[in-house]
Design goal:
Blueprint lengths: L11 E5 L2 E5 L12 E4 L2 E4 L1 E6 L2 E12 L2 E8 L2 E3 L2 E3 L4 E9 L3 E9 L5 E10 L3 E2 H6 L7 E7 L4 E7 L4 E9 L3 E7 L3 E10 L4 E9 L1
Antiparallel strand pairs: 1-2, 2-3, 3-4, 4-13, 5-6, 5-12, 6-7, 7-10, 8-9, 10-11, 11-19, 12-18, 14-15, 15-16, 16-19, 17-18
Length: about 210
């Protein structure tokens, strides 16, 4: 007797305790969708993307390495910079994520060429603090006031949703050696830009920690 095998959409899902992270195979979180970082019944991060001089990265491989951790390997498209063009597949980007008291994220950039490169690495994310039932229905109602603040001293982004009875917040901390950084924020959308200077055959590690 024939039977039907149903395959779900391609995604990466990890969990730890009451925290769940669901992303696209390349590590991004597209919006609108049901993907995101969840704690209990609330979605904290609803959109996440990373760019090099405005160009998205190409997926090589990736997936969970345990129930609470995932690793994704990406490479660059051809990038136009002030110093000239960076050919495709010159750079490697490894995204390592784990859930433990929040989301810990390492971004490792490798320069495989014999020349130094300079480009802007941009990490953009959005927080909607939506209830899981709203996410499932596709009818998300924004409540209260969502504000985002950047601290140069702490290298930290904090997004707060002020509701009638309680306040929810998302806090993201950056460790960015060997690069200059700045951020710009809208009401519920944050973009963190880093000008990355990499020597030939160099490796750069960027650490980010999210606590919801």
């Amino acid at each position: 007797m024939a039977f039907k095998v149903q395959v779900g959409p391609p995604q990466i899902a990890i969990h730890q305790g009451q925290t769940v992270l669901v992303t696209d195979p390349d590590g991004t979180i597209t919006w609108p969708s049901e993907k995101g970082l969840y704690f209990l019944d609330t979605r904290i991060i609803s959109n996440w993307a990373i760019y090099a001089n405005g160009e998205s990265w190409q997926l090589l491989n990736g997936g969970p390495i345990s129930y609470y951790a995932a690793r994704i390997y990406l490479t660059n498209k051809s990038i136009l910079t002030e110093d000239g063009s960076i050919p495709s597949r010159t750079l490697g980007l490894t995204i390592s994520r784990s859930l433990s008291g929040g989301l810990h994220e390492d971004l490792d950039i490798t320069n495989n060429s014999m020349k130094s490169v300079r480009f802007q690495l941009e990490v953009a994310f959005r927080c909607d603090f939506a209830d899981i039932f709203e996410v499932k229905s596709g009818r998300i109602v924004r409540r209260g006031k969502i504000t985002t603040e950047w601290s140069d001293q702490r290298q930290q982004v904090r997004t707060t949703a002020g509701l009638a009875l309680k306040s929810r917040f998302s806090q993201m901390k950056f460790g960015t050696p060997a690069c200059s950084t700045h951020s710009r924020m809208a009401t519920n959308y944050s973009t963190h830009q880093m000008t990355v200077l990499r020597p030939a055959t160099g490796l750069l590690n960027l650490r980010r920690c999210h606590n919801g």
